[in-house]
Amino acid sequence: MVPPRGRFIVFEGGDGAGKGSALAAAAEALAADGLDVLSTREPGGTAEGLELRSLLLSAAGSVWDQGSELLLMTAARVQHVKRVIRPALAAGKIVLCDRFVGSTIAYQGSGRGLPHSLIRDLHRIFVDDVWPDLTVLLDVDAATGLGRSRRRLAGAEADEGRFEALDLSFHERVRASFLEQAADAPDATIVIDATGPLDSVRRDVVSEIRAWLSASLTTG
Ligand code: TYD
């Protein structure tokens, strides 16, 4: 018997691109289509990952060296892939994940300036070289995204503002990196213009994912 093969769909984009809300809309729509969906996020996704998340994202936690930041993001991913993502895919689920290694390439690589080759090596050695079947990139210019994200953080309880505190040029490098990654893998990426109202972004995301999945599930 051929084992079931799930699909691994990752949502990427800069801060304030609206990934969280687009992912929630996609999860709801796919579940309504009768699919078995698991929603998860990075950094986080496991109890250990959530502890690392609060250490890494706290604005008060800016004592981390960029090398430590890369290793901790990767450590959270190792736990997440081995304990959550791999088993869900093996059970045939559609896994929707908010951020993955593309964020490490964009933030720690292009943002912080660490070598992309090092990030890819760590991913190959420790994360079994697991890559998304599909990446949904929500693209918005850095100033607009950052403005949205800072407004949201101002009203939030959690102290998760470490990256939002970085300057605009950092976030412009992050955006450029996501677009470069999309251009390098055009068959496995859908780029959505996330500038417009959230409702229309959510509708675009749901219809693009439904179209991709119906083709992908038909061809096996
Ligand atoms: P997230 O919760 O997705 O924030 P937002 O909703 O504002 O987009 O991600 C938290 C932050 O973590 C975000 O600023 C990007 C950063 N990050 C990295 O720097 N590297 C990584 O590998 C990941 C997964 C996230």
Q: Can you list the ligands bound to this structure?
A: thymidine-5'-diphosphate
Would you tell me the overall average pLDDT? 94
Strand arrangement across the biggest beta sheet: 2-3-1-4-5
Main sheet?
5 strands, parallel
Structural class: alpha/beta
Distance between the termini: 14 Å
> Radius of gyration from the CA trace?
17 Å
CATH architecture: 3-Layer(aba) Sandwich
Question: What is the strand tally?
Answer: 5
Per DSSP, the total helix count is 8
SSE topology string: EHEHHEHHEHHEH
Number of domains: 1
What CATH first level would be assigned? Alpha Beta
Note poorly predicted spans.
Answer: none
Overall morphology:
globular
* Percent of sequence in beta strands: 5-15%
List its salient traits.
binds thymidine-5'-diphosphate; alpha/beta; 5-stranded parallel beta sheet; Rossmann fold; 220 residues
Question: Helices, strands, pairings?
Answer:
Elements: E1 7-13, H1 19-32, E2 37-41, H2 47-57, H3 66-90, E3 94-98, H4 101-111, H5 116-126, E4 134-139, H6 142-154, H7 168-184, E5 189-193, H8 198-219
Parallel strand pairs: 1-3, 1-4, 2-3, 4-5
Bound molecules: thymidine-5'-diphosphate.
The site of thymidine-5'-diphosphate has 15 residues, from helix 1 and helix 4.
A few lines on this structure:
With 220 residues, the chain is of the alpha/beta class. It is 56% helix and 13% strand.
